[in-house]
Amino acid sequence: MQFINPKTDFAFKKIFGSEQSREVLISFLDGLLYDGQDAIEDLELLNPYQAPRVRGMKDTYLDVKAKLNSGDFVIIEMQVLNVEGFEKRILYNAAKTYSTQLKTGEDYKLLNPVIALTITDFTMFEEVEGYRSRFVLKEKDFLVDYPVQDLELVFVELPKFDKPLDELKSLMEKWLFFLQNARSLDAVPDAMEQVPEIRQAFMLANQANLEPEELEDLEKREIFIHDQRNAILKAKRQGMEKGREEGELAAKLEIARRLLGQMDDEAIAQVTGLAVEQVQLLR
User: Buried b / exposed e across 12-47, counting CB within 10 Å, b at 16+?
Assistant: First the structure.
């Protein structure tokens, strides 16, 4: 068997964000958020498109959005490229999911907690040794929790996870191994077969179960990611020669040029951190 790369946005949504993958998503969240406990009885998959409630407010897209039986909302993003402004985008999406729950006239007590789970294929927090980190609101000097802990940002950095198959113990470790290694496997490992939801995830990731159009879209996406990584590396090398500030601008411009045929000006500006006017000049 050949498996698609779960780290691409197309594959991630297919494996975790479809109606047929409900049990897969429950197991995945139990593993990454609740340390393998059967904490989630059920969930409702929601439209990952977050439409603006206020004119002029940005519309945003998530990889997966769900409402747990507890009432909590979980938004999930799988991010392969470390683009400009990514950290702010995570916070914006979490705050937007929280604030758009209420309709005009509804009481604040109706607000439900939001957990933003972000899996990155790059290191975000060099100073944090572990591969999972959790951020909540605390008092700055005394580290006392804010009375309402309704916003939690959870990050999983895949480059920090390097356990081999024979050392996997927890449900979280098995799911992270799946994300890291499914593409390079040609069969479902025996240790993974023991978890029905992970076995199902492998079946969803099996290339034989995809339509030709889906495989073509996936291949284009992987080529795009590969090109962007090379563009970033090239720009960084140029940056070392031109100086930090000029190098950062060169990196943004190089990425923007490659995106001109695939995104509109506003989307390119959001990804690169350039002004819309700069993108328009490039076009």
Answer: bbbbbbeeebbebbbbbbbbbbeebeeebeebebbe
